[in-house]
Every structure is written in C-alpha cells, then in structure tokens.
C-alpha cells in the first residue's frame, strides 16, 4: 500500500530498501534520512567517517548507500564505496559539492548527485537505484544526477560487484 508522506512523497507502509547515509554534515544527513524514509526506505544508519560507515555496513548490509566524497576523515568516500560494493554488493551514489573529485570510473558507484540538491532529486535517485537493484534495469536519469560511465557500456543486469 502506498501512502502520502508529510511532504507529499509516496511511501510504502513496509520499507523495501536498506539504505546507509555517509555524510558528515549532520543537518544534511538528517534531511536525507527524512526524505529516504518518506520514499519507502529503511535507513539503517548515518555515518560521518570510514570507521562508522563500515561498522554500520557490517551489521546491516545496505542495499544502497549515499556517500559523500569528502568526510571528516578526508576524501574517503571512494574507498568506502569500493568496500561496500565489493563486500556487500551495495549500490552506491556519491553526494558531492565538488564534481571534479568524483574518481575516474566512479569507483563502481551508480553515479553522483551534485550538492545542493532537493528532496525531489533524492526521490528520483532512490527510484533509479531501486529499479537498478531490483531489476538490473536503468530508468529515467534523475535531474542533477550524473550516471557513472560504466552504466552506458555494461550488459543488461551486470554491475561491478
């Protein structure tokens, strides 16, 4: 059953996607958590650095992770992404105010969202990732989302995991 959340975003009464937020700006992480919950996701945790992100991932094995590139412990987002993809098969989307810092090949991530973004963008990214995770299919590219180059050349249903 789909219900309308407080912000008018359609939500499910049963969360269907485990999501990890890796963001060192506390207010932004809280806003992301709210939008993700309203989008039918189960936010399994928020981390501000590598140690926190990997501890939450080990316990909850997220299906999707929204990962800032620059964190409290430096530019560690790409390393976290590689680990989540390799160890847990997580889909990763980078969040960044500095698109020039996105690593070549996107470190296996689905893509990146430029900051600042709004809740409609995050809702679109969640829908895009959900479809990719569930069906291996690419949906409509959300605004302010830069898909990883490997998505254009990967065979249907194949992800770098």
Structural class: alpha/beta
User: Judging from the principal axes of the Cα atoms, what is the shape?
Assistant: globular
> What does the largest sheet look like?
6 strands, mixed
Sequence stretches where pLDDT stays below 50 over 5 or more residues? 1-12
Helix content: 25-40%
Rg calculated over all Cα atoms: 14 Å
| Count, helices | 5
Give the topology string: H per helix, E per strand: EEEHEHEHEEHEH
| Beta-strand content bin | 15-25%
Distance between the termini: 32 Å
Compute the number of strand runs.
8
The overall average pLDDT, rounded, is: 87
| Strand adjacency order, main sheet | 4-3-5-6-7-8
What does this structure look like?
The protein is α/β, with parallel strands linked by helices and 161 residues long. It is 35% helix and 23% strand. The protein contains 5 helices and 8 strands; from the N terminus they run βββαβαβαββαβα. It has a 6-stranded mixed beta sheet with strand order 4-3-5-6-7-8, sandwiched between helices. A two-stranded antiparallel ribbon has the order 1-2. Helix 2 packs parallel to helix 3. The radius of gyration is 14 Å and the shape is globular. The N terminus is likely disordered.
